[in-house]
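The protein record filed below.
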Amino acid sequence: MFTDPISDYLTRIRNASSAGHRVVEIPASNLKKEITKILFDQGYILSYKFEDNAVQGVVKIALKYDKLTKEPVIKKIKRVSTPGLRKYVNSQELPRVLNGLGIAIISTSHGVMTSKQAKLENAGGEVLCYVY
C-alpha cells in the first residue's frame, strides 16, 4: 500500500532511467495514464502501453535515451504537491520550468495538462510534478 502513488510512479521512472532500463512497469490508475500520455506527447518517453489484467492493470513505459551519449532524456522528474503539503496555483501563477525548457504537469478541473495548456485555457489547479 502506497501513501502517495504519484510519487511512487515518478520514482520508478527516475530509478529505471538512471539504471539504464528500457522498459518500466507501473501499477495503473487513471491519473497515471494521463501523466503518461503527457510525457509521450512532450517527447520525454519513447512509447507506452496500457495492459488491463485482473484487478488494477499495468502501465508499461519505454524510456527514451539520447542516441549519441546514451543519456536519459528525462534529466530530472520532481514531485511538487505531496499529500502532506498540496501546492495549488491559479491561472496567473502557473510555473515555468527551466525558463520554458521543461514542463510542469497540472491537475485542473479540465483534466491533467501541462502548465502551457493550462495557461491557454485560463485554468489553475494542483501542481503535480516538474519534468526536464
Notes: The first helix runs from residue 5 to 19. The mean pLDDT is 95. The longest strand covers residues 45-51.
